[in-house]
Write a structure and sequence with these properties.
This protein folds into two domains: 5-15 and 259-359, Aspartate Aminotransferase, domain 1; 29-257, Aspartate Aminotransferase, domain 2 (3-Layer(aba) Sandwich), CATH 3.40.640.10. Helix content is 34%, strand content 15%. It contains nine helices and 13 strands. It has helices at 16-24, 44-61, 75-87, 100-109, 225-229, 240-257, 260-279, 305-317, 342-359; strands spanning 5-6, 67-72, 92-97, 114-120, 144-147, 149-150, 155-156, 168-171, 188-192, 203-208, 297-300, 320-321, 332-335. A hairpin with a 4-residue loop joins strand 6 (149-150) and strand 7 (155-156). It is globular. The chain binds pyridoxal-5'-phosphate.
Length: 360
């Protein structure tokens, strides 16, 4: 078996140890005589799995007691609608647009009320994050929405908006668990799990108590945070396998990595290897303004589109797959989530240097 270095933006690599645990438990979980895939979600065995998954996520992310955690289907995209449906109590909200997903979130919210785009970094093709300290926030906005890490453009926030009395809602799909986060700065955090946490098929929302229970009566039950959370994410059949895998990854982060501060150190070092290389030469170019460089998604181009194509093809042959940039940006993108080993980035850099020498 030869496992490749998979630089996919998501679904993406999972820690090998977690995959092996899942493999060893695939046919029989514990002494239950059945797979988690086959288990009733109402069984004591699954009840223990979902409870431990949530408890472990609370420990890993240091979630304060006045926040609830819910597991949802429909991906992060469904959250784009659930956020306004549940939180837009004044009929308006502020959105900062820093890329494709924050733009989609704002568009979805417009279906439900007044959306003020208070900043938009499209003027420089989303290569930076607007200065959040100098923005004209709407005083009676129900919330401020940001996308913390922009998967396609490879940017991330350094500071986040802090406006007294207006909750901050953040899409953390592509950076959750990459480093510690001060949850108390946010009214709500949501993320699709298919990058740093688990296989595709689930989103998680972490929501401050006081923001729950304000949805209009006609909001569908499955779109109502309170309805799902008050039933411990078991209003209906939950994505059992994703929850189980999330639990395994949380355990891995706690026991093998030793928590998110350690994870951050690993990620800073790992991304540093790639950015240092990019800064040391002129064949490849990373367009992002330095302070806003993402630890998780690194974009770069070669001198032209033909060489980009050649690079991706030769890289794939060499075992570095899914390096093609998103169609909105072109070029290349290396998504180096938690589970990408440092060695994978070191080897990619060697390959890039060699390619540059041969094609420069
Ligand atoms: C930051 C961000 N938000 C939202 C999404 C959409 O997620 P989903 O496909 O789970 O709906 C993605 C997907 O890559 C993403 O990277």
């Amino acid at each position: 078996m030869a496992r490749v270095y998979n630089f996919s933006a998501g679904p993406s690599m999972l820690p090998e140890k977690v995959l092996k645990t899942a493999q060893s438990e695939l046919l029989e979980y514990g002494t239950s005589g059945q797979s988690v895939m086959e288990m009733s979600h109402r069984s004591p065995a699954f009840d223990a799995i979902i409870k431990e998954t949530e408890a472990s996520m609370r420990r890993v992310l240091n979630v304060p007691d006045n926040y609830k955690i819910g597991f949802f289907q429909g991906g992060a995209t469904q959250q784009f609608a659930m956020v306004p449906l549940n939180f837009m109590t004044t009929g308006k909200a502020d959105y900062i647009v820093t890329g494709n997903f924050s733009n989609l979130a704002a568009k979805e919210a417009k279906k439900f009320g007044e959306v003020n785009i208070i900043a938009n970094s499209e003027d420089k093709n989303f290569t930076y994050i607007p200065d959040v300290k100098s923005l004209a926030y709407t005083p009676d906005a129900s919330y401020i929405h940001i996308c913390q890490n922009n998967t396609i453009f490879g940017t991330t926030y350094v500071d986040v908006p802090e406006v007294e009395g207006v909750p901050l809602v953040a899409d953390m799909s592509s950076c959750i668990c990459s480093k510690p986060v001060d949850v108390s700065k946010y009214g709500a955090i949501y993320f699709g799990v298919q990058k740093n946490i688990a296989p595709a098929g689930m989103a998680v929302a972490i929501i401050r108590d006081d923001l729950l229970g304000n949805a209009a009566a006609n909001v569908p039950t499955m779109m109502n945070y309170q309805a799902i959370i008050s039933k411990d994410s078991m209003y209906n059949t939950p994505p059992c396998w994703c929850i189980y895998m999330t639990g395994l990854v949380m355990k891995y982060l706690e026991e093998d990595i030793g928590g998110l501060a350690n994870m951050e150190q690993i990620n800073v070092k790992k991304a540093g290897i790639l950015y240092d290389f990019l800064d040391s030469q002129s064949f490849f170019n990373n367009p992002v303004e330095k302070p806003y460089r993402s630890l998780m998604n690194v974009t770069f181009t070669s001198p032209n589109a033909d060489l980009d194509k050649k690079f991706c093809a030769e890289a794939a042959e060499a075992g570095f797959v899914n390096l093609k940039g998103h169609r909105l940006v072109g070029g290349m993108r290396a998504s180096i989530y938690n589970a990408m080993p440092t060695e994978g980035v070191e080897k990619l850099v060697d390959f890039m240097a060699d390619f540059a020498k041969k094609n420069g």
